[in-house]
Amino acid sequence: MAFTISACDNGSADPSAEIGETSNVPIQRLGAVWLNQQLGDGQRGTSIEASFALLNQPLGNERTIETVVPSPDLCSTDAITPWGLGAAFIIEPDSTIEVESISAGEALVFSSPAGTWHTLLQDPEPGDSGYVDSASLPPNELTLDVPGDSFPGFPDMPIANITPLENVTPEGLATLTSDSVFRWPPAPADANTLTVIFIEIAGPVFVSDASGDHDRRRFFCVARDDGELALRDAADDELSSLIDQDATLTRISAWRSGYTTQQKGDALLVVIHSVLETRIRTVRL
Fold it and tell me: What does the alpha-carbon distance between residue 208 and residue 204 come to, in Å, rounded to a whole number?
């Protein structure tokens, strides 16, 4: 499995001060573990992916965390990757950073107070150090044991408890303006976890001229899980200019993800726990 990485500017917020344990040692080994709960119709279970990489040059701690953890609050017409890392590191074509897959041990073990919930085995294919599997829905109070190899061991890594996201407003057929505000019931705060809401507006209709011709676009938001996101504060310049033309919201998807980080020496581990019980509301014009 090939690994790549990019640094992108998703806003000015600094999540490094809010999540997990980090230090000022530059990062040269990077790991990501992603649990994705699917709760929709006909889909009830968890996909699990993990990847570990060695960078050909060290990156500053702050830059690395900005790369792998989304910075709320931001809304943009650019695709904001909702998965964080998952099992893929994304590289920009002109990046000078090269990375290679490394092993973190034969098996990653997820446990709760009731015992072992799931064991994630390393891919047995030669030259592939990735980890991919599916499982049942996880219990709360999960921890992760990374045994270590070329990537160091991380015992008892805490995993964020994530609840489904419900009742996001506005719903379909709402007129969006620069003063529009998205609202939802926030999750309980956890000082060791950055919890964010991803909102995908997949098909708002921007009225482009007096004849009523429609220019269909979509945009994405990453919001701190505090219950409110104001477009005026979060929208980038391109999105602000489109919304000011007049926009009708036709469909919305939203989900919640929690990010936990820990650093050991030059190794940074990011664990992402997402609940994708996506609430989609569609209105036909």
Answer: 12
Cα Rg of the chain, angstroms: 20
Q: Which of 42-56, 65-79, 88-102 is most confident?
A: 42-56
Q: Of 149-158, 199-208, 217-226, 240-249, where does mean pLDDT reach its minimum?
A: 199-208
Q: Does 170 sit behind a cis peptide bond, omega within 30 degrees of 0 on the bond before it?
A: yes
Q: Token pair 């005026």 is at which residue?
A: 232
Q: CA 158, CA 193: separation in Å to the nearest integer?
A: 9
This prediction's pTM: 0.80
Please name which of 63, 60, 51, 65 lies closest in space to residue 20, comparing C-alpha atoms.
65
Residue 186 β-bridge partners: none
Rounded to whole angstroms, the Cα distance separating 59 from 140 reads 33
User: With the C-alpha atoms ordered 4, 197, 258, 14, is the resulting torsion angle positive or negative?
Assistant: positive
Nearest to 72 by CA among 240, 185, 226, 191: 226
